[in-house]
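Pasting two entries for a bug report.
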Amino acid sequence: FESAGGTVFIGCNTGLFRSTDNGKTWKQVQSGGWAMKMVESNGVLMATCQQGIIRSTDNGENWDVVISEGGVGIEVEPIKGGFAAITFNTASETRRVRTSYDGGKTWQAIDAGLPASLSIASIIQVGDDLFCSHPNGIFRSSDKGKTWKLLRPSPGGKVFKLSVSGNVIYAVLRNEGC
């Protein structure tokens, strides 16, 4: 991942590494298990990791866990005015969908209208609508996650990996899970 300021990050099974000189030298800036997907919005970096969702406000020098719940971070995406995230709680074996509109300081659950599932896989925003991939199919919320409507059923328990380019949503079927 390359930040807006040109800092380069690599996530691996032992944490996050950062380079401020185009990859000539690297410094480990987060440890304690794997770190994966990373996003940035308004100078705030967010990443999924083994402990949940982590956040940095100093260009990746320091990281804080902002969503933990005894589980792992599955997905994090920038949305208008904030971030959306999916986490998995290993103790209760549940996935939660949340949003933050204060740079990742606080998070609100927005999954009350979605059927409970171990395999909620993706969340994106197009326009003002949120779209969530679930084993039942693709759901849309036009009210920031207060209510959800099933738009496209999923065949055979598979989930869609959602991506967006402009106003076009791409949905690729895959087996349940991350």
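Entry 2 (this is the one that rendered wrong in the viewer):
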Amino acid sequence: MGTTATDYSILRHAGATWELAKYAGEQKSKDGAMQQKIESSLDYLVKETVYKDNNTAFLADREYKEAKVGGNGLALLAMIEYEKAYGTGRYLEVCKKLGNGIADMMDRTGKMNHVYYYGESGQKDFTLKAEWRVSYYDGEAAYALCLLHGLTGEKKWLDLAKRAVDFFLREGPENHSDQWSAYTFNEITKYAPKEEYFRFAMESLANDLPQIEAKKTAAFTSMEKLMCYFEMVERMEAK
């Protein structure tokens, strides 16, 4: 489907808000105007959130009449970083419901279904539209679950993240080597420092390095991955 000047990407909105909230947290910003801008952006995400039941929510992509597991992940990341920066509790309940949405899209093996129908004529809402869409979605959702555990301390979210990561292990590093997977393994090893998690990350690094070194120009996604690997190596040495 082509895009027009009237198209608006709700996933890009969520990703941009996440970056802004991260910046505010890193700068320890008490700028009231910035906080208001972030809240305004997050409130738009809340407005675009739809509910399967009282406890299960999804970020709706109304342009394509879909709900995506990666969308839930990005919306969660934005709200969690806001809560880490400002600690108001304003979005905590929505975060948990979006986390339940990710759980709804994950089967017992840890495999995530990527896309549900939402608002599509002739299709039942919250039923499967696509098992797989984009490789990033898995890592976005798993990383968000890790951070949701960090925010709330609730074991439920860590257990879900482990289930997703164990599925990554079975699929192999060649299928989960993007920056989102690196974020996920870096984060989950803070709470579950399993040897197999570190080993998977180092195998992914070994696969990535030749391609990174061969590039003629720098790529910010490569730097993100390398920084995650660096932190994991430091954590392994400390242990």
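Dev reply: Rendering is fixed now. As a check, the viewer should reflect this: The mean pLDDT is 94.
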